[in-house]
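Question: I have long wanted to understand how a fold can be written as tokens. Here is the record:
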Amino acid sequence: MRINALYVIIKLVERCNLKCSYCYYYTDENAEVYQRATLMPDGLLVHLIGYIREALVSAPVRRVVFGFHGGEPTLAKASRVRAFCEQARQDLEGQVEVGFALQTNGVHMSREWLSLIVEQRMGVGISIDGDRQLHDTHRVDHAGKGSYDRVRHTLDTLLPLERAGHVRVTALTVMGETFDGVAQYRHMVDTLGLNHIKLLFVDRTADMPPGAPVLDKLASDLCDMFDHWLLHDRNRVDVSLFTSTVRALLAVEHGLRGARDRITMGFALLSDGRVRIQDDFMIASDWFWSQQELNVVDTAFKDYVQQPHLQQLVHELIHVPDACQDCEFSDVCAGGEPAHRYTRARGFDNRSVYCDALMRFHRHVQTRLAAGSRALPAALPSTLEAGVA
């Protein structure tokens, strides 16, 4: 295993100003969040810099990204975050490339935070699920009011900064059961003006399979969105799932697929100083909650890396599950997200809960690539072409 980069999730604020219907963080299993400090103390941020400095001795990497997360990180004062960023750069640059990112619900963005984003050239991930009706179905505040208009106001402020080259804004979009593929994609691209989109699957383990109609709809949405993107937006819009799939298929076709032993390793720092595996794996609840108790104050990064849970996770990232060994796309998706493969009975050695939809999507993309750019328009469904403005 070689660690290419470290992604450090800083739980800067352990509360949120939204109450989203599919939130994975404020659950009965994570009720202890209300016992932790609402705001991370400054002293822990100082310890974190020392923790990373020590980590670079035992696990040299090229890049460290500190991601401000929550809860909702913009509830903290930008001045506190600026002080941390400046100290981190002062203490770590020269040993490693340092970057910063912000994950926000976009409900409120102060002038101070905007200035900080530009100063530190932060990547900004903003959660938006589509148009007002869809977004406000799930992403409401504690009074039950939708957040779409406030998020759009924030986007209208951020996107000019992106066009000026100061920031990269990525929409994080959950493909729930009411998600309407091409319509929502076009709203985000044509109406909102987004150029970077990360499509997210609903959090499920293989113990929680959706019904066949849900998987069929998801596959259709992915295929239709891909076709629209390929015909109209591939040179100006980055949809991470689409670009990564195309690259992986082409790499396999041309024998350029390298070893998967270079990974980006992440961990989350909670407001009480605990270091734990990132939130993506909270749905694998019995496994997640049995990880070791480690603290940034009195343990080292090597303790985190050497714990059995992390070693198991690294193995799952590097190796294709036994259930996928004979799949024609095993070198493309590597079994999908590990959390989506988890079962209490077999751990992570299973097909993804979204395997059927991913299989259909990969085959669809493969067919489009085989058709070639000249034949592509004729190969696409006529109903889709007719629907393009």
